[in-house]
Amino acid sequence: MAFDTSIGKRLSNLRRQDRWWGYFYLVLLVIAALILFTVNLGSLPLDELQEGTMVKIAQEIWQAPPNSWRWIFPTLSGNPEVFRPPLFPDLLAFTFNIGGVSPLTTRLPSALLGAFSTVILYGIGRELFRTTAPTLLACCVYVTFFPVISQGRWGTLDAPLLCFEMFALWAILRSRRDLRWTLMTGFGFCLVGLTDNWSVLPLAVLIFLFLRWDTPRLLICPYFYCGLILGMMPLIAWWIAQWYFYEPIINLWANWQYGAFAISLQSKLSWEWLTNQSFNRYLSTFLHYFSPWFVVAFYGLRLAWHYRNWGWAKFLLVTGSVCLFFPLLAIANVIPLSELAHPRWYVLPLYPILALAAGKQLHQLRNLPSYIGYPLTWVSVFNCFAILLISLALYGKFVLKIDFDWLLLGIFGSVIMTLIATSFLLARRDIQFIHVLIWGNYISLLLFFSFQYGI
């Protein structure tokens, strides 16, 4: 009995030590994410189409008298924005009240929420994997995804929406063990709905399918729905207020939207929509946001299918499927898009899932026996990426006669050296390829955003 007790204490101490080391590395990751999200943030002017619209709405909220209720019913040039959720414009107005109107204050709320999403991803990983190593690897992959950093630095809805969706998913994972977290799940729905109305639908479908497969007892639990409704009360109240103040406009919009939806559904139930402009727009967005991490994430999703009876695998498969299904509906124009809708709104939620899958796959590679080699496909993919970048640089220099800046050439060289070194270490079966790939991507992103080549 004494022996069992000592073993139990030792295991408890190891778990506690592992948890504290995880928190330490998480703090370092958050600092690294903050640097990427905020470095050189206010150097470039605002984008007139998307950031400019948000700034105008936030300015009207900021300059309006307190009894005007603009913070609940936003306006643009004095005209009511009926379906414009007020959360993000209110956040911008609060920032303008502190620091004035500038590119930095416009983008800072999104950048901070984007960096904070790293903490939420860590919480999701701990709920899924129960260990620190794959979770930290997933966070490293997430921080070095170019689209996550690039779009998170804009003063638009991208980073807030992604952060709030991840918070709702974290809350639903925790509510499987503690029903009190259903209140936070409802609050996550509230944050998503007050940021973008349409994003509530895919989130609700995702959570329902995951619970139906993994934890069906929650779907018949009255406490689950009570917590969900209580957490969503601010969103429900805003919907009721919208209906009360804008009922004629909403009725007119609903009739038009129903007819547009029916026509769209009839015309798109064929393969003709694959050749339309919307498909090309989404495909170009997807290719623009492609990353070398995708090959690792693909193997991670294949690993999840192999272990599909486990909770983490169910979560990755369900969320990945839903996050792919709704972009297809958006491609076909079957679901309506708001005025400022952009393909990235439907593509970005994929990246936390891909990061989790890649983190799990990298963790498995670290624990492989020494006689098992790494996938040769990875070596080929990284070599192809390096050759493609070299070819693009040479084509631009000698064919298009582009005068490249030395700093831009340095960024190209950093990415190419990272890919070549990674493929070399993979071929030698050296586990250090993980550190080289993470650090190489991070340094390349830091150089890119530090010298005004991108927001």
What descriptive keywords fit this protein?
2 domains, two-stranded antiparallel sheet, 1% strand, 20 helices, 455 residues, mainly alpha
Describe this structure in words.
It is found in: Cell membrane. Keywords: Cell membrane, Glycosyltransferase, Membrane, Transferase, Transmembrane, Transmembrane helix. Residues 84-238 form the Glycosyltransferase RgtA/B/C/D-like domain. One of its GO terms (molecular function) is pentosyltransferase activity. This is Glycosyl transferase family 39. With 455 residues, the protein is an all-alpha fold. It has two domains: 18-269, no CATH class; 368-455, no CATH class. The chain is built from 20 helices and two strands. Strands 1-2 form a two-stranded antiparallel ribbon. Strand 1 (75-76) and strand 2 form a beta hairpin. It starts with a helix and ends in a 5-residue tail after the last helix. Mean pLDDT is 83; it is low at 252-280 and 336-341.
